Amino acid sequence: MLAQMRSLLGTAEYPPGSNHNKITEWYGMNDAWCDMTVSYAAAHSDNLGAIGGKFAYTVAHAQSFQSRGLWHYGTGGIRSGDVVFFDWSGSQSIGAIDHVGVVEAVHSDGTITTIEGNTSDQCMRRLRNCSTIVGYGRPSYGDASPLPASDGILRKGSTGDAVKTLQQNLNTVMGSGLDVDGDFGPATDTAVRAFQAKYGLTVDGEYGPASAAAMEAALKGGTKPQPPAPRPPSGGQLEVDGDFGPATCSALQRALNQHGAKLSVDGGFGPQTKKALQSYLGVTADGVVGPNTVRALQKKVGSGVDGQWGPDTTRHLQQALNAGTF
Q: Where is this region: Disordered (predicted)?
């Protein structure tokens, strides 16, 4: 599964912003393709049954894992090969999931490295923390380890070391004065609700991913979870290969910043980068890279002008970026 996900790194959309590539061709529709990527990798590694079937809708996929007893909220016990689900608003609700990836590595600081499709219109590695993770599904690989005993949410009746850690943290952050006994009783429930109210969370007494992310920030003196900073490809000469991947996109972002844009150089061809490109080219900055934008780009870089962004357009763009003429 991971070998197939790695083989997809750098897969982008042609033209950029179109939701069209070999993954969506295989799936049979041009649409948001993050879960299509997971399905593609599973199908091409004989793991489609392990992930529950072919999915494009992330909520349905998470619900499938949950219905089969293969779901866990948050990141406790997460492992390489797990399918991890995100909600950018930071909720812990399966119904709010809007993105998915596959875990490649788990790090000692609580972050994970993922491989994700349709992240800034590409298949890329990302470094993620618990601030936006709803939970994960454990595919039924032949060598899969058992899931943790709990579903990942601490609530009234929970016991054990995780509850002790929560109680210690509540005492530190809130001065709750709890007995650190590992028993999630009425006093711990009251303290959790007070913590949730203070940090603007849903006050339900359930300590899940959103509360855990807020607690991590609070222990560091902050008021809200901070996502990991992007790690863009380093600068330098681009390979003129016609592949509009993270390195070319990062070089484009750096060039646009020299013309007054204030972009985060993350190698992702997202809405802000598209609008900055359009503003630089003097076309309507609507974030939709259509024929008018492509023709303006082609005129700028000296490629054939047909309104279709293909490898030839990218090669001319790469040459212009290397020469410092863009």
A: 220-244
pLDDT tens, position by position, 61-101: 999 999 999 999 989 899 999 999 999 877 778 999 999 99
Can you tell me whether residue 154 is helix, strand or coil? Answer: strand
- 8 Å CB contact between 113 and 95: no
Q: Tell me, yes or no, whether 67 and 129 share the same domain.
A: yes
pLDDT in tens, 288-313: 888 899 999 999 999 999 998 988 99
| 222: CB partners within 8 A, 6+ apart | none
Tell me how many degrees the CA angle 152-155-159 measures, rounded to the nearest 5: 80
The tally of domains found in the chain comes to: 3
Looking at residues 188-213, what average pLDDT do you find?
92
> Do 18 and 129 fall within a single domain?
yes
Helices 209-219/186-198 angle, 10° precision: 70
For helices 246-258 and 311-323, the axis angle rounded to 10 degrees is 50
- The answer to whether the pTM exceeds 0.85 is no
Distances (CA, A) of 45 to 2, 26, 49, 50, 325: 9, 15, 11, 10, 44
Q: Is the peptide bond before 311 cis (omega within 30 degrees of 0)?
A: no
H-helix or E-strand spanning residue 249: helix 246-258
Can you spell out the DSSP letters for 158-211? -BSHHHHHHHHHHHHHH------SSB--HHHHHHHHHHHHHTT---SS-B-HHH
- How many Cβ atoms sit within 10 Å of the Cβ of residue 146? 7
Supply the range of the domain harboring residue 286: 246-323
Beta strands in the chain (DSSP E): 71-73, 83-86, 99-106, 112-119, 122-128, 133-137
Q: Are the beta carbons of 309 and 300 closer than 8 angstroms?
A: no
Long-range contacts of 166-172 (CB under 8 A, 24+ apart): 166/192, 166/207, 166/215, 167/191, 169/215, 169/219, 170/195, 172/219
Do 194 and 286 fall within a single domain?
no
Give the residue from 207, 265, 271, 208 showing the smallest Cα distance to 231: 265
Tokens matching residue 317:
């763009």
